[in-house]
Amino acid sequence: MAVFHLDDNARAGAPLLVWAHGWGHSHTNLFPLAETMQSAGPSVLLDFPGFGASPLPPNVWGTADYADAAAEWLASLPAGRRLWIAHSFGCRVGLQLAARHPEAIDGLFLIAAAGLQPRRSVKARLRFAAWRWAFRFLRSLVPEGPARERLRRRFGSADYAQAGPLRPILSKTVAEDLSEVAKRVRCPTVLVYGEGDRETPPEVGERLQALIPDARLYTLRGFDHWNVLTEGRHQLIHRLAEFIEGRA
Fold first, then answer.
1. Residue 106 in contact with residue 81, Cβ under 8 Å?
2. Around Cβ 57, how many Cβ atoms within 10 Å?
3. Which residues contact 87 (CB under 8 A, 6 or more apart)?
4. pLDDT tens sequence across 14-35
5. How many angstroms separate the CA atoms of 56 and 231, rounded?
6. Is the distance from CB of 105 to CB of 15 less than 8 angstroms?
7. Residue 247's pLDDT is what?
8. Residue 127: which residues within 8 A CB-CB, separation 6 or more?
9. 190 touches 108 (CB < 8 A)
10. β-strands 189-194, 43-47: how paired?
């Protein structure tokens, strides 16, 4: 797993800030945030296996496998406080990490956290079932090759269409329900969502907050799943600075 260190100007004893990106991203998407937080603590940014500069994992990993790999790496570092700062997919891994390896980290700061199955109306569930049936039926008629690839692009999400060799991992991770995992998280947790997020709506955060014993939830007006990292950066920095100060 490729890791990237950012020199810090922080006081002695500051926590290590570990930055974990979302699906389809790499450490570069979180680098501007990490750079802004240099005075708060040393930063290490990850490229999860299969993303950025890291090679593919050896088999079809789920989020527990990613968390175990992160825990193994963290165990190799000098002792000290660590805060896991993540976006989207990185939040799934962070929840697993906190539940499976509670000694590895001392806090979670989760932006647009995924991990719970979406709530759908009866109409939406029926529409989704029809969509899935149509895709599977048409797929059975089309041999592997360019035509089937066009079918995947038509019926699949943008993430799925662009996932390439990571498609089996994407399918596995999005099917996971981390409700029981979230209940086992015992470290302080901050959940931040964009009010207009359609990928991981704020109601997901409300449910996660109810499951995690020590969790705070913030909803930022005017932002969605993606621009919360860019246009919403100033608000994220404010909440993150509060969180780090509270862990001092």
1. yes
2. 16
3. 20, 21, 22, 25, 29, 30, 111, 112, 229
4. 899 999 999 999 999 999 999 9
5. 31
6. no
7. 75
8. none
9. yes
10. unpaired
AA letter at 132? R
Q: Measured between alpha carbons, how far is 120 from 134 in angstroms, rounded to an integer?
A: 19
Classify strands 215-220 and 107-111 as parallel, antiparallel or unpaired. unpaired
Q: Which residue has the higher pLDDT, 115 or 142?
A: 115
Average model confidence (pLDDT) across the chain: 88
Question: How confident is the model over 160-201, as pLDDT tens digits?
Answer: 666 678 989 998 999 999 999 999 999 999 999 999 999 999
In sequence order, what are the residues at sequence separation of 6 or more whose Cβ sits closer than 8 angstroms to the Cβ of residue 96?
63, 64, 66, 67, 178, 181
Distance CA 71, CA 204 (A): 25
Residue 246: is it exposed, middle or buried by C-beta count within 10 angstroms (0-12/13-18/19+)? exposed
Q: C-alpha 16: how far from its chain's center?
A: 18
